[in-house]
Design brief:
Order of helices and strands: HEHEHEHHHEEEHEEEEHEHEEHH
Strand content: 15-25%
Number of domains: 3
CATH architecture of the largest domain: 2-Layer Sandwich
CATH superfamily of the largest domain: ATP-grasp fold, B domain
Structural class: alpha+beta
Mean pLDDT: 91
Shape: globular
Helix content: 25-40%
Number of helices: 11
CATH class of the largest domain: Alpha Beta
Low-confidence stretches: none
CATH topology of the largest domain: D-amino Acid Aminotransferase, Chain A, domain 1
Radius of gyration: 19 Å
Distance between the termini: 8 Å
């Protein structure tokens, strides 16, 4: 879009955050950061908490564009996107279907398999007991922020892990544990940003590692061979396209000891907090935080650019 900066200066933006999911506190942090970025660039922006009166609040805001800063259910899963569609207001990120596909790990991994995208073997269940080879990652099928996730190494750990995961979802995903380097690839527009290697202080990149300062170390660029890095970036773009995502996403990988990348999941609305990975990758690509937000909006309005 030509003269995008001038266009957005004359628009009113509603930033949607909060909601009812377990990830609502993180969403509010993302929302506050986004709202601050718009206001620093002199864009008229209002923050709106996601609740039962959100449609009325959006109408009253007279918003020309909605920036969806929601994480988890009722926001990242196509719900908020559908609301914006009904209100006929353009919005950030992926559409209804792509958001729903990305949120459900079982469905997204099935799509990945159909497109030849490497993802660890898995199965989904609603009941216990269930047989699955160990070690395994046991998690809610449609959760985020590593809430309810357990890495089970022993048979006696599986039942407790299942009971933890089922609290947060109607189905539980059991995924083969792949040992290796945790790598994340941020996608912005039609390119993958510099890759980040994650070194959590805990056994895996759990909720505390993600959101508590000092609980994980981020290495940029990731310490993987250039050929593998190129492969990871290409797979990230392929995964983004396979799910029909738009404008931006973040794809999480494990690169095993043989240098083979495995896609764990795709986040259609990555966190934008002070410890989040997406802004860090954007900064390495030369974007300030507010420039990144503007680019996210621009790419949402012009997905082919």
């Amino acid at each position: 879009m030509k003269n995008f900066g001038r266009w957005i200066q004359n628009k009113r933006v509603a930033v949607l955050y909060g909601g009812w999911s377990e990830e609502a506190p993180i969403s509010r942090k993302t929302g506050a950061a986004v709202l601050k970025a718009f206001r620093e660039r002199n864009v008229s922006a209002v923050g709106i908490e996601m609740n039962s009166s959100v449609a009325e609040k959006i109408r009253k805001s007279r918003a020309d564009f909605c920036f969806i800063a929601l994480h988890g259910k009722w926001g990242e899963d196509g719900t908020a996107q559908g609301l914006c569609e009904l209100l006929k207001i353009p919005y950030s990120g992926s559409g209804v279907l792509a958001s729903a596909l990305s949120m459900n790990k079982s469905v997204s991994k099935t799509v990945f398999q159909k497109h030849g995208i490497p993802t660890p073997p898995f199965r989904v269940t609603r009941s216990w007991p269930v047989s699955f080879s160990l070690p395994a990652v046991i998690k809610p099928v449609d959760g985020g922020s590593a809430i309810g996730v357990t890495v089970a190494h022993k048979r006696e750990e599986v039942k407790s892990a299942f009971q933890t995961a089922i609290k947060y979802s109607q189905e539980v995903l059991l995924e083969k544990f792949v040992k290796g380097k945790e790598i994340t690839a941020a996608v912005l527009g039609d390119r993958a940003l510099p890759l980040i290697e994650i070194l959590p202080k805990h056994a895996f990149y759990d909720y505390t590692s993600k959101y508590v300062q000092g609980m994980s170390r981020h290495i940029l660029p990731a310490r993987i061979p250039a050929k593998v890095a190129q492969q990871v970036s290409e797979i990230a773009l392929k995964a983004h396209a396979a799910l029909g995502c738009r404008a931006f996403s973040r794809v999480d990988f494990i690169v095993d000891g043989n240098g083979s990348p495995w896609v764990l999941e795709l986040n259609s609305i990555p966190g934008l907090t002070e410890t989040s990975l997406f802004p860090e990758a954007a900064r390495a690509a030369g974007f300030s935080f507010s420039e990144m937000i503007f680019e996210m909006v621009r790419c949402s309005l012009n997905p082919k650019q």
